[in-house]
């Protein structure tokens, strides 16, 4: 059996407005991970790109946690790990870097230890580490996913829209951990706000399934998390409005932020520039990247 494997995992944008902790889309931005299982003790780590000099080479690393989960469940005897990463997904920005890291570790270790686990089982394991399924599901499966937790199990729907669209991700220079962005959320919400989100989420999935993209504008509205996170992201309201004024189909916070996302079928560059400009007016440096839907999810490279 080989003791080294390389996998590629997409970044993901979660929530998509109202679908908090449920909706996610795999995006064409990727991390590559090469995992080697060794006989010598210890963890060796090389990182190129995002997170270089910052990602820890110890048990606190989520890739290590994911790999060890598979090794423990399969009774594998490897003593040490070598991890080589080439990362394009920015850390703690709302594009699913932690989900990509977890999924990369699980998929690579599963492949090296004899493929004991199905994609569904890997999804259960990834959700147990990440805490919510909305990023890890599209990272594993590609496409658009709706995931729910039922009695500790993940149930999901995965689909591709019948028409193409672009996603303009505007990535500010500062980071915001998902943990910090979840701390500001309330324990309870007013009943009308819950109704507001139920109707928008239903409309969002309907619009994406049928290709009725003009419905995205109202379907991306949210009252469950974005208003509470807005104070953490200077200029958020203006940046989202700038996207719509520049012709976006709709705009929303990406995951827990601070990245902001516009959906577009044309003028993607103009939309990106307008959003960056609105961040700049709020003294935040930012860049934009035009993404499409990744259809494959995590893949084995070699
Ligand atoms: N390639 C990676 N290897 C190890 N840990 C990573 C990697 N990418 C992200 N992480 C961990 O995930 C954290 C960011 O996760 P999170 O706050 O959920 O933001 P997001 O998933 O939106 O990027 C990082 O601070 C780091 O601890
Ligand atoms: N539903 C989660 C999604 C977090 O996504 P991330 O890409 O920011 O990790 C949340 O909104 O907290």
Automatic annotation (TrEMBL):
Superkingdom of the source species: Bacteria
Function: Catalyzes the ATP-dependent phosphorylation of L-homoserine to L-homoserine phosphate.
Enzyme class: transferase
Pathway(s) served: Amino-acid biosynthesis; L-threonine biosynthesis; L-threonine from L-aspartate: step 4/5
Residue span, GHMP kinase C-terminal domain: 205-278
UniProt entry keywords in alphabetical sequence: Amino-acid biosynthesis, ATP-binding, Cytoplasm, Kinase, Nucleotide-binding, Threonine biosynthesis, Transferase
Family: Belongs to the GHMP kinase family. Homoserine kinase subfamily.
EC number: 2.7.1.39
Subcellular location: Cytoplasm
Main location: cytoplasm
Binding site for ATP: 90-100
Native source organism of the sequence: Sporomusa acidovorans (strain ATCC 49682 / DSM 3132 / Mol)
Annotated GO MF terms: homoserine kinase activity
Domain GHMP kinase N-terminal: start-end pairs: 61-143
Catalytic reaction equation(s): L-homoserine + ATP = O-phospho-L-homoserine + ADP + H(+)
Protein name: Homoserine kinase
Encoding gene (name): thrB_1
């Amino acid at each position: 059996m080989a003791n080294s494997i390389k996998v590629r995992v997409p970044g993901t944008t979660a929530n998509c407005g109202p679908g908090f902790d449920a909706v996610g889309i795999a995006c064409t931005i990727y991390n590559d991970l090469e995992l080697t299982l060794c006989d010598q003790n210890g963890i060796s780590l090389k990182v190129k790109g995002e997170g270089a000099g910052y990602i820890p080479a110890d048990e606190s690393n989520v890739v290590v946690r994911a790999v060890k989960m598979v090794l423990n469940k399969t009774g594998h005897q490897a003593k040490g790990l070598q991890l080589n990463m080439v990362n394009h997904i920015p850390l703690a920005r709302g594009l699913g870097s932690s989900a990509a890291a977890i999924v990369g570790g699980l998929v690579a270790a599963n492949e090296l230890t004899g493929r004991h686990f199905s994609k569904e089982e890997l999804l259960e394991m990834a959700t147990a580490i990440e805490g919510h399924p909305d990023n890890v599901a599209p990272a594993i499966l590609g496409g658009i996913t709706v995931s729910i937790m039922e009695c500790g199990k993940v149930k999901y729907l995965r689909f591709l829209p019948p028409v193409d669209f672009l996603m303009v991700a505007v990535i500010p220079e500062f980071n915001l951990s998902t943990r910090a962005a979840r701390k500001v959320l309330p324990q309870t919400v007013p009943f009308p706000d819950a109704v507001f989100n139920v109707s928008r989420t239903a409309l969002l999935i309907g619009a994406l399934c049928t290709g009725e993209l003009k419905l995205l504008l109202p379907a991306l509205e949210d009252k469950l998390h974005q208003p509470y996170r807005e104070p953490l992201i200077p200029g958020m309201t203006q940046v989202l409005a700038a996207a719509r004024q520049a012709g976006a189909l709709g705009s929303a916070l990406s995951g827990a932020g601070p990245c902001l996302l516009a959906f577009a079928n044309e003028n993607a560059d103009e939309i990106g520039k307008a959003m960056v400009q609105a961040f700049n007016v709020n003294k935040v440096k930012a860049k934009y990247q035009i993404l499409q839907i990744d259809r494959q999810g995590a893949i084995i490279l070699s």
